[in-house]
Structure formats: C-alpha cells, structure tokens
Please model this.
Amino acid sequence: MRIGLIGLGRIGAFHAETLSSLPGVDLVVTDAVPAATDRIVAKYGAEPAKDPGDLLRGNVDGVVIAAATDAHPQLILAAVEAGLPVFCEKPVAKGAAAAEEVLRHCAGRTVQIGYNRRFDPGFVAAREAVRGNVLGRLHTVRSTTMDPAPPPAGYLAASGGIFRDCSVHDFDIIRFVTGREVVEVYATGSSRGDRVFADTGDAATTAAILTLDDETLAVVSNTRYNGRGYDVRLELHGTDDSIAAGLDDRLPLRSAEPGVTFPAGPPHSFFMDRFATAYRRQLAAFTEVVAGTRESPCTVADAVEAQWIAEACTVSLREHRPVRMTEVRSAA
Model:
C-alpha cells in the first residue's frame, strides 16, 4: 500500500515515523521545504515527490495531510477529486463556516480527520462504558486539556484562539464518548500570561460549560500553563458509577493527602508522548480505511461539529453570555 504524506513539520515527521513502521506501507513524501523532504527520505527510505500535485499523480492509494491549517481545505479537495481516501490533521479549515464548505464538497468521499483521542485505550473504554449503560444515567462530564507551556507566539497568533486550537479536542471527545450533541455553551477565560494572549484577544486559561441534548452537563477546562505537565483526562459521572480516562501513574497531578503516593511515575510532559499509542492506532485505522475494510472513524461531519462548538465558545467568551448552537450556525 502506497501512502502519500504532505507536510513534514513536527507532526508530519512524527507521522512519517509511524507510517514507515506499519507493515505493508510504502511512503511517498513531500514538503514545501525541500530539506525536510530530504531528511525523511534519508531517514525512512521514503520516496520523494516534488510537490502535492506530483504526489497525487504518483499512484498512491491514500493521502495523509499534515501541512499547515490554511492548506487543509485545498489539499483535502484536491485529494478527493483525485479519487483518493484522505486523512487530514484537524482542523478541516480555519473556521467552522469554511469547514462546512469542505464538508459539502466531500459528500460521499472517504475522509478521516485526525482526532487521536478516539483511539486512546482509556477513552475508548470510557465510550464503551457509556454505550453499555455501565454508569447509569450520565449527569456530569469533566474534560481537561492542560499544556505545560504555551506554543510559540507566532503559532498562537495564527491559531484562531484556544477554543479552536486546543479545546476542540475536548469538544470532539465529549461527542464521541457520550454520543450526544451540544445545544448550548457558556465560556469564560483569563489572558494572564504572555502578552500575546491579550494582544490577540485570546485566553490562556478557560472554562466552558456545555449543555448536551439530554441535559447532561460537561465542564471543559483548558490552560496553556500547567507547570506539572501535560494533563489530559475525561471524567464521567453517572447515577450508578463514575470513571475516568487518563488517571494513570503519569498523571501530572499530585495528592495533598498524607501518605498517598499516587501517581507513582514521572508526569506526562508532551502530547506525542501521552498519545503515542493513539497516534499509531489512528494511522493504522486509516490504512484499513484505504483498504476499504473500515469506514472513516472520524468524518468531516464529526470534525465540523467540534468546530461549531469552538465557534460558540469563542462568541460566549467575547460577549460574556450563554450561546445556543443554533445561533452560531444561523449567523454563519
């Protein structure tokens, strides 16, 4: 199976390592920076392509897009027009309305969007517990994503804000695990930290309350400044039981209770480390999608829903009020 990979920056290079290790995968790669292509070719024995067009004409069976966000819509549409199954890193496009346009053009096409938490064993087990009614009636969800330090200022300035860049992972996993839709949000935040947050109208720390369509309440907590490490968890509380994904020995949180030694291991410090297994399973799933033995496990429609929630939270933060999902859709 020949898989093309477009974009060889930090995440693209990581995907190159993963794809080259999957059995039966031959890798074809390209990047706007020729030296990046040369490095991956030399390291993994990949076949080079001079540009995305050359790659799409190179008899590949599927395409992985890890280029910059601004290029996602054009590359997704070029790949589906070439009749190829596509895996694209999130987001589909920079804004939800633009992503909705991509969705319209991808009707009936095979596209998988890269929300890796859907492949993490803990999150998968949490979903199975909810679907199996193990927890009884779900009433409270708590989703956490806390980075140990902010990305570079240039990245932050172009990211679209913390809800679109970071929290969107929480929004997607809440939908995936609960099987419910968000109907209303209320978000607040603080820009304390690097000056870039205030200068760009962004927040460094946020909290959002999501009301789901069965009246379950989800609380989403995010920050760019979690000194102890990279903290990603999902708590699910029901009338019969409560569980958590991410509650392992590398949890970046220590107990203040005397004599309690949990967690025992070094804290997670980086998302590629925390989700290494999920990333591998995600791309292995894409090879099954390419082979035609599996449907897309995260469609463009799924990703667009998460982006609309991010849009609603962005409006709520800016205007200090609850926002209905129907409002942001109708305003687009």
Summary: The two ends are 40 Å apart (CA to CA). The mean pLDDT is 96. The chain has two domains: 2-116+280-297, 118-272+306-331.
